[in-house]
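Subject: sequence -> C-alpha cells, single chain

Hey, anyone have a minute? Need the predicted structure for the following. Not urgent.
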Amino acid sequence: MIRLSFLPPLAFLLAAATQAAVDPALLNLAPPEAKVLYGIQVQATLASPFGQFAFSHLPANAVTRFAAATGFEVQRDLQEVLVASNASDGSDALIFARGAFPSDKFIALASVTGATVYDYHGVSVITPPERNTKVFAFLDPSTLVIGTEPALRDAIDRRVSGAVFAGPLLQKAKDASAVADAWFATVTPLVDMIPPTTSGGIFNPATLLQSVIETSAGLHFDNVGVTVFAEALTHSETEAQGLAAVLRLAAGMAKGTPAAALQNAQVTAAGPVTRITLSVAEHDLERSFPSTAPRRAARVAF
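Reply:
Had a minute. Here:
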C-alpha cells in the first residue's frame, strides 16, 4: 500500500478548491513512471465551512511562529499541491506545490537550524540536518518540491530538459482534477497497492478490489459538506456489476457516524466501470475530525 504518513494532515489542511484541472507545469515535474497521483487545490477549501473548521483546529503556536519566521501563510499563499509516487510504499513520493514562496526566508531559516544548502542546476537544494529526511527546493518563487534527494534531483532534471508528463495516468489525472477539489488517480491495480492480509471473507480488501485495474476518486467541498465520488475500471461488465453489488452490501451494513451517508450512496455500473457518489454533511465531517482544542474561538473569515 502507498503509505504517505503526511497525507492525512495534509488533506485536512489543504483539501482543495477551485475546480481547475491540475497545473500542467506541476504535472510535468512528476516522474513518468508514477503509479499514483494525488492533487489538491487549496484556496476554496480553506474558504469552505469545513476548511475554516479544520484550519481553526491547527496548533496556534506552531502556525504563528512559522508565519512570523517566513512570512508564508497557508490560507493566503498556497494554491495547489500535487503528490506523485511510483513506489508501492510511497518511499519515493514527491510533493510539488504552487504558491507564493518567500524562498530567501525559507533558506535563511533552514540555514540557522543546521540545514545544508547547495546548488544543483541553478536550484538551491536544502537538506535538513536530520538523517533520512526529505529535502526540498524552490524551483522558482512559485514552485516548491519536497522529496528524497535522488527523486528531487530527477524532478529538477525534468524541468531543465523540458520534459512533458505523458502516459495513461495523464488523462486520468486530468479527468479527476477537472471535477474535484481534492483527488487521486492511478492506473495500477488496487490489489497491488494494499498490504497482504490473512483475513478472509467478502470484505477482505484484496477480495473486494481484485477486479479493479484503474481508479480515480475525488472530493468536492461546498457550504453544506462534501461530495465524494469514485470510479473503478474493471476487466468486464460482469466484474463491474459484481463490484457494485458488493459495495452496496457493504454500505448497507455500515454502522456509526458514516452509516447514513454510506447507505444513501449511489452505486452504479456501466460497462466495465463502477461509479460511487455520496454526500457527507458538514456536521458529520466535523465529528470525524481529530479531537483537539480549537486554535481560534471563531472560524477564520476570509
